[in-house]
Protein: SDR family NAD(P)-dependent oxidoreductase
Amino acid sequence: MTPDGAPALVTGASSGIGAAIAHRLAGRSAPLVVTGRDAGRLNAVAAATGAHPVVGDLTTTAGRAAVVSACDEHGVGLVVHAAGIGAAGPFSGVDEAEVDAVLAADLVAPVQLTRALWPAVRRARGHVVFVASIAAIGVAGEATYSAAKAALRTFADALRLEEPAVGVTTVLPGAVDTPFLARRGYDRSFPRPVPADRVAAATLRAVERDRAEVFVPRWLQVASVVQGAAPGVFRRCAPRL
Ligand SMILES: NC(=O)c1ccc[n+]([C@@H]2O[C@H](COP(=O)([O-])OP(=O)(O)OC[C@H]3O[C@@H](n4cnc5c(N)ncnc54)[C@H](OP(=O)(O)O)[C@@H]3O)[C@@H](O)[C@H]2O)c1
Structure:
């Protein structure tokens, strides 16, 4: 589908990749609903993009219900799930609350929100975008996050097979220069973080071309292809990446 003129929802629009996507949709999608938890940052994005802000926590039933009700009011054809949290560190140091938080924000929330919006998106013959991560192929030191993103990628694959009338795109970025990296304690020089707007541009191009998956930067796709075609080689190389 083309986002031009289609009503759209962008979650996680108060920061980073979601904010960049909202800025690119401004004036193209009408109306545009944006969500986030931080009212100040979300309202600033809404003011700059002419969007309808919905402040709330998507890991709660009430938070998701508020978003669904805004979509009922304004319509929805394009859904971009960009909200998410990271977690890094050895799995031996992960506590129960962190596992719950990551799975709730990165897996349960987008699946539940998609379920609630699915009838409207199907009617609109719309498009759903899941911002996953290259961690979906399995990254050491990010086991829970990798599991959530891999499950989200597979959820998208299943939806795509089940409902050809709805476009489904999974976005798999590497490191992206957003506040997410500092919160997660990213301290590597490789791969170099890309700007959030580069992910936003690739995402909207993928929607227009109805691409199943898009890796940002594109060369990261090699890792996924090697993992699928030669898992033994992948396992030997992965610790060095
Ligand atoms: N940055 C990277 O290197 C990178 C790489 C690969 C994939 N990703 C994925 O890209 C997506 C966007 O990340 P980003 O880099 O843009 O991070 P970010 O700048 O930290 O933004 C995350 C967004 O998600 C929202 N959010 C988080 N938990 C939420 C919750 N429980 N309810 C509602 N909103 C919630 C945040 O809202 P508030 O700020 O208002 O709380 C914020 O708008 C995430 O799914 C992340 O996993 C990021």
